Amino acid sequence: MSKIITKIGDIFSVQIDDNNKKYMQYIINDMTQLNSDVIRAFKTVYQIDDNFDLADILKGEVEFYSHCVLDIGIKYGYWKKVGNIVDVGKINHILFRDSSDYGNPAIKVSNNWWVWKINDDQKYIGKLRGKYLSAEIGIVVTPEDIVTRLRTGKYDFVYPGY
Q1: Contacts of 152 (CB under 8 A, 6+ apart)
Q2: Residue 114 · residue 126 · CB < 8 Å
Q3: Rounded to an integer, what distance in angstroms lies between the CA atom of residue 34 and that of residue 36?
Q4: Which of 31, 82, 156, 157 is 20 to 30 A (C-alpha) from 108?
Q5: Cβ-contact 65, 149 below 8 angstroms
């Protein structure tokens, strides 16, 4: 198989069921989180056979932001590249969170939270409060997790609450 090349601005179509798809766009790499690919996923659902102007798709509401590995998603058919538009929107407002308790199934509610903006230092905040409650989960998620969230609106992996 040839090397998969992705570029910032790439737009991907993600089939969420037999009849529908959603779109996402590669917006940046986050050095704070393993130099991982960051995507913005759009909320609008499209019929699988419909073709839309990509610029119009990017005007839609962003449903979530996430860290992932785009190449793996392409390689295993979770999404396919449909174009590239250099405009990736604003990124300075995107806030991620992670818990030091992630991976410990005994902890249902964490008081050990870290938050950060893309390519910025992580900040320990302890208990998750205020504006940080809306921060996106910042771990690098699998392609299957991205599709699950596009399909259902949430991830299905175990992660501590707040």
Answers
A1: none
A2: no
A3: 5
A4: 31
A5: no
Q: What's the pLDDT tens digit per position in 22-64?
A: 999 999 999 999 999 999 999 999 999 988 899 999 999 999 9
The model carries a pTM of: 0.95
Which tokens hold the place of 99? 């818990």
Distance in angstroms (rounded) separating the CA atoms of residues 120 and 139: 15
Q: How far apart (Å, rounded) are the C-alpha atoms in residues 113 and 26?
A: 26
Burial 63-88 (b: 16+ CB within 10 A, else e): bbbbbbbbeebbeeebbebeeeeeeb
Asked if 79 and 143 count as a contact pair (C-beta separation under 8 A), the reply is yes
C-alpha–C-alpha distance, residues 133 and 73, integer Å: 28
For 22, the 3-state DSSP assignment is: strand
